[in-house]
């Protein structure tokens, strides 16, 4: 990688200042994440002539086959629109391809700042220019009138695999507010439940987050777990769309939502 090097803990302050040049809340969330991880795993600093101008990186979701998410990706506000973002993203995408990446995802908000306007519009433009396609838009995700847009990009040709359905029973084991959102909730779950999930189990979850003043619930499941969709729809959830080939070629991640 020409302009990227692995981020170190001594870079955190500078990187948080770069993120803060765009958005204070993102800077706070990113700093908490870097500190929580006890380091800066899989984050990369973008440097030109020894000067730190940006940050990017990736994370690997559990249970997936060569799937990657882009993590915090920023160029210092004063240095934007000079081609650095395109170059930095080109380098990290090539690096992830080199690691054997099959599919790469990234999420962006459509937030419109009262003073600065659509602060993520350049990112959305650039991602699409580089070959990402919009796969899902979750309306009112981060807050009312602030959507989450998820884009995906293939890094390898698709393989045809024999997909077996997973008939294990989903069981919910808790509810939590989704990070970076205002009152959007999700349910945690495991897939070794003792009995098939029933509409009543889903209602228990809906009531639990209603008591927390939730605005919405967002859930997602592998498409080869076939027992979950019918009770979810019956309980009032609707299907958004799917992240294609998320778990492996032929196994999508199906997304569902419920608005109060
Ligand atoms: C996204 C970001 C990294 C791009 O960095 P950059 O150095 O400005 O990138 P480049 O100069 O290579 O390219 C910017 C592109 O955005 C376009 N652009 C700039 N402002 C735009 C706007 N308001 N709407 C649409 N496109 C815009 C430019 O025309 C350019 O595209 P082009 O090369 O096709 O002409 C930078 O803007 C940034 O840090 N943004 C805030 C953080 C962010 O949104 N991160 C991603 C989500 S976590």
Percent range for β-strand residues = 35-45%
Ligands (ions, cofactors included): coenzyme A
Q: Looking at CATH, which topology of the largest domain would you report?
A: Aminopeptidase
For the largest beta-sheet, the strand count, sense and barrel status come to:
8 strands, mixed
Rg from Cα: 19 Å
Helical segment tally?
6
State the helicity in percent bands. Answer: 10-25%
Q: What is the strand tally?
A: 15
Walk me through the structure.
- It is built from six helices and 15 strands.
- The protein is of the alpha+beta class and 260 residues long.
- The chain folds into two domains: 4-154, Aminopeptidase; 169-259, 3-Layer(aba) Sandwich (Aminopeptidase).
- Strands 1, 2, 3, 4, 5, 6, 9 and 10 form an eight-stranded mixed β-sheet that branches. Strands 11-12-13-15-14 form a five-stranded mixed β-sheet, with helices on one face. It has a two-stranded antiparallel sheet with strand order 7-8.
- Helix 1 (12-20) runs antiparallel to helix 2 (24-36).
- The longest helix has 15 residues, at 84-98.
- The protein is globular, with a radius of gyration of 19 Å.
- The mean pLDDT is 94.
- The protein binds coenzyme A.
